[in-house]
Design brief:
Elements: E1 8-11, E2 19-20, E3 35-38, H1 46-59, H2 65-68, E4 97-99, H3 101-107, E5 113-116, H4 126-139, E6 144-148, H5 152-163, E7 167-173, H6 179-187, E8 191-195, H7 199-211, E9 215-217, H8 223-239, E10 247-251, H9 256-270, E11 279-285, H10 290-296, H11 322-331, E12 335-339, H12 341-353, H13 364-374, E13 384-388, H14 396-403, H15 439-449
Parallel strand pairs: 5-13, 6-7, 6-9, 7-8, 10-11, 10-13, 11-12
Antiparallel strand pairs: 1-2, 1-3, 4-5
Helix pairs in contact: 4-5, 4-8, 5-6, 8-9, 9-11, 12-13
Bound molecules: pyridoxal-5'-phosphate.
Pyridoxal-5'-phosphate (PLP) binds near residues 254 and 313.
Length: about 450
């Protein structure tokens, strides 16, 4: 792969290959399908694979920011961006894998691992794809970029656009975005437009706006985001010394991330880095479950829903990358599962109890493992890596409401959507207490209530 052949764009999911050049700005093929980047991959010799693995090792210690990036370190898999000059990087990726004993016990596993994408520059996995897509935007001469977002895409785009001196415009569903994410978009200087309607409406509007030209679209319909997100799986396997786990578990919203994982495994296999692929399990919230329903149905077509969940990052009823996600599941003998608002909330508290924490959408993974173990699809001794997609501090309101025992499945706390009532936190909430500033009384209280688990 030292001299990569030229990559190109093609429409996804058709037999006939219509090629489009990389420098033509378009988001769909002429027949309306999603586009994907084709990286000419050939099977490498064992020596070549060993050399590349060593090169990836060495780059971790390089002083070049492009080598240090957990995305661009693996640039041999990103041939669309060759010759890799003018890269906009914030040292994204490089995210840790943790063992999670509390979550393992909770979900019925002997061991359970998470790879925490919340430890990215803007606190979510969106940075992995934004570094590549913004680099391409710059290459294509864009001066303005835009996205519709449930929050994290806008935070990430705003940051990378600011770093590259481009103007960014975000379309967010009014009143439905977590505060941590909104604060980022504002601080990084995005023109932030709250539109009436939900995410799916915002997505439709931004596509229409960008169709008129001038403004470059950075939602995950943009195939260059998917390219960057592939490296989440490449980095994971690098960290595991290329030993393939049994399962990778990922939340499903607009389904770009799961799509990119499927593409990563296909490419790694094609060039001889791995011989078998992990199974991908995509977990959705019950109130935003079109992939779950589509996967289970005979026709396997997308039937949009009106999305309802407190996990706002996956509150998406009409996911753009539906077809690509189906491929990711099918090509890895994977599964799709759904979990309830209560299951998400409790699983999130268990991730916190391991000293890690995440935003609500990420917790679908641990909730999903518990469910799939109970159903017998996953086994207690398998190696499972859950992808935690966003940082705990993205949505502090949710966490505080949970621990105060004031979390409602319906954000407005009124209607009765999918159990719109209060979420039963069981024994898992950790209420703050108010006490007088009296040392004796405080110590009495501590003696009675605080017990070390060691
Ligand atoms: C974007 C996002 C998701 C959903 O990912 P998709 O690629 O849209 O399926 C899940 N969790 C978090 C924290 C996100 O920001």
């Amino acid at each position: 792969m030292d001299k990569p052949e030229k990559a190109y764009l093609k429409s996804f999911g058709t037999e006939q290959v219509v090629k489009y050049p990389l420098d033509q700005i378009r988001y769909r093929s002429d027949d309306g399908r999603l586009l994907e980047v084709v990286n000419p991959m050939r099977k490498l010799s064992e020596d070549n694979v060993a050399d590349l693995k060593q090169l990836f090792d060495m780059r971790q210690f390089s002083r070049n920011p492009v080598d240090r990036s957990g995305v661009w370190r693996f640039r041999e898999f990103l041939s669309a961006f060759a010759p890799y000059d003018n890269i906009i990087t914030m040292r994204e990726g490089n995210t840790p894998i943790y063992t999670m004993p509390v979550c393992a016990a909770y979900s019925g596993m002997k061991e359970l691992f998470v790879k925490h994408q919340g430890f990215n520059p803007t606190g979510s996995f969106k940075d992995n794809g934004m570094t590549t897509a913004v680099t391409m935007a710059k290459k294509l001469g864009a001066r303005m970029v835009a996205c519709a977002s449930t929050g994290n895409t806008s935070a990430s785009m705003a940051a990378y656009a600011a770093r590259s001196r481009m103007k960014s415009i975000v379309f967010i569903p009014e009143g439905q975005i977590a505060y941590g994410k909104l604060s980022q978009a504002l601080d990084y200087g995005s023109l932030t437009i709250q539109i009436s309607g939900d995410f799916d409406k915002a997505m439709q509007v931004v596509q229409d706006v960008c169709k008129r030209g001038r403004i470059y679209l950075l939602n995950s319909i943009n195939p260059f985001r998917i390219e960057g997100q592939k490296t989440i799986m490449i980095e994971m396997l690098h960290q595991l010394d290329w030993k393939v786990p049994d399962w990778v578990v990922v939340p499903g919203g607009n389904l770009g991330n799961s799509s990119s994982f499927g593409k990563a495994f296909a490419e790694l296999k094609a060039c001889g880095f791995i011989t078998k692929v992990p199974r991908i399990a995509i977990i959705q919230a019950e109130g935003a479950n079109p992939l779950y329903s589509g996967f289970a149905s005979k026709e396997r077509v997308l039937k949009p829903v009106s999305a309802q969940t407190r996990a706002t990052a996956i509150k998406i009823g009409n996911p753009v990358s539906f077809d690509k996600a189906l491929y990711a599941v099918d090509s890895t003998e994977g599964l799709v599962e759904q979990v309830s608002e209560t299951e998400i909330a409790i699983a999130k508290s268990r991730i916190g109890a391991d000293g890690i924490g995440s935003e609500p959408a990420s917790a679908t993974t641990v909730a999903g493992v518990k469910k799939l173990v109970e159903k017998g699809f996953m086994h207690s001794r398998e190696k499972i890596i859950c992808i935690l997609t966003g940082h705990l501090l993205k949505d502090p309101d949710y966490t505080v409401d949970f621990h105060k025992d004031e979390l409602y499945a319906d954000a407005k706390r009124t209607s009765s959507v999918s159990g719109g009532s209060k979420i039963d936190t069981g024994d898992y909430s950790n209420k703050p207490v108010q006490l007088p500033a009296d040392v004796d009384k405080l110590l009495d209280y501590i003696d009675e209530h605080a017990h070390s688990s060691i």
